[in-house]
Amino acid sequence: MGEGISDYTRFVVDLRRHMWMAGVEMELRRLIWQIAVTGKYISAKIHESNRKLAGYKNLYGEEQLSLDRSADEILKNQLQYSGFVREYASEERDAVIQIGKGEEKYFVTADPLDGSSLVDTNLSIGTIIGIHKESVFTRGRDSMVAALYITYGPLITMVYSAGKGTHEFVLNREGEYVLSQEHIMLEERGSIYSPGGLRKDYTKKHLKYLEYLEAAGYKLRYSGGFVPDINQVLIKRGGVFTYPALMKSPRGKLRLLFELQPMAFIIEEAGGIATDGEDEILSLRVQDLEQRCPIYIGSRFEVEKAMEFLAAN
Ligand code: AFP
Q1: Domain 192-311 fold
Q2: Which of 23, 94, 224, 302 is a good FRET partner for 212, with 20 to 30 A between their CA atoms?
Q3: What span, in angstroms and rounded, lies between the C-alpha atoms of 221 and 179?
């Protein structure tokens, strides 16, 4: 029996209503909403580019930006003079820029289009956002007030936390973000592992950890996109994503500020943990934008097991 439109609207919880009901502070609600809307423009750019952009000229003969730089421009323009954002730091820029008048409340970090090397394969990619109440050059634990990521896949989904749980929204045909999963909580342990990097470059301790997971029957799930790979651990309620210290690059590959802090904030709010193998990601001080860091993130059992293996003699 179909529900009348009034029933439908009664049960539909859109992003703005959810944040208001969760008691998220007004300016932060409006900023998160504005960023979520930007995801629609970035998605449109991905579709418009049909996976080719860099090096192409548009009909006016103008050189087209690569998709990740286009996504960065869209985000920056959307946040500039929004009234909420004082500074903007992006994986596509080599310095933090002031985009407000200087008294705004928030500092935003962005990986505008993570996994862009996957665009031509039509695999899912994403946007990763961190929202800070003070300069980002400190510990995430002290500065972060919210984080979100948008996954451009068969559906466009947005996962956010403003410190009151982790929640998922789906962009519906009407262009609204509608609540799909509220207060997502990871189990104590899961059944999937997502191992970045090359086996030949692993340290012996990391290799022993992966062999432990494989012997325990964990299923390998790795797409090469941090956003969908982490999203799978969250939505499947457990498991572990890791991009470890490698012999040739002891700091691993992923960026502390743009990729790891936002995901650590979100996963911790879902009852999981995120470490560099020794210390919690959100306890690490950000020294510079380029700072990379090994990562073990997901449900408690698997991440603590990793720390055991890495600490063993
Ligand atoms: P791109 O943004 O260059 O596609 O890199 C994606 C990424 O930064 C992150 O999303 C993945 O987890 C990781 O790199 C994959 O790295 P490998 O290609 O070395 O597996």
Answers
A1: D-Maltodextrin-Binding Protein; domain 2 (3.40.190)
A2: 224
A3: 26
Q: To 10 degrees, what angle do helices 300-311 and 204-215 make?
A: 140
238 Cα to the center of ligand 1, angstroms: 21
> What is the pLDDT, as a whole number, of residue 49?
81
What's the pLDDT score for residue 153?
96
CB of 114 within 6 A of ligand 1: the answer is yes
Determine if ligand 1 sits within 6 Å of the CB of residue 196: yes
Tell me the CA–centroid distance for residue 20 and ligand 1, in Å: 35
Q: How far is the CA of 115 from the centre of ligand 1 (A)?
A: 6
CA of 185 to the centre of ligand 1 (A): 26
Residue 119's pLDDT is: 86
Strand partners, 147: 130, 161
* Structure-block tokens of residue 166: 């982790």
Pocket mutation for ligand 1, best pick of 69, 128, 226 (most atoms within 8 Å of C-beta): 226
Cα three-residue angle 212-218-219, rounded to 5 degrees? 135
Which residues belong to CATH 3.30.540.10 in the chain?
Answer: 11-181
**Cα(224)–Cα(229) distance, rounded to whole angstroms?**
7
Can you list the residues of the chain whose pLDDT is less than 50? 1-7
Q: Which two tokens stand for residue 30?
A: 């409006």
Q: What number does CATH give the domain 11-181?
A: 3.30.540.10
Q: Ligand 1: which residue has its CA nearest to atom 5? A: 115
Ligand 1 near 117 CB (within 6 A)? yes
What is the structure's pLDDT at 82? 85
Q: State the pTM of this model.
A: 0.94
The closest residue, in CA terms, to atom 6 on ligand 1 is 115
How many CB atoms neighbour CB 163 within 10 A?
Answer: 15
Domain with CATH 3.40.190.80 in the chain: 192-311
Task: Tell me, in angstroms, the distance from the centre of ligand 1 to residue 225's CA.
Answer: 6
Q: Using CB atoms within 10 Å of the CB of residue 33, give its burial: 0 to 12 exposed, 13 to 18 middle, 19+ buried.
A: middle
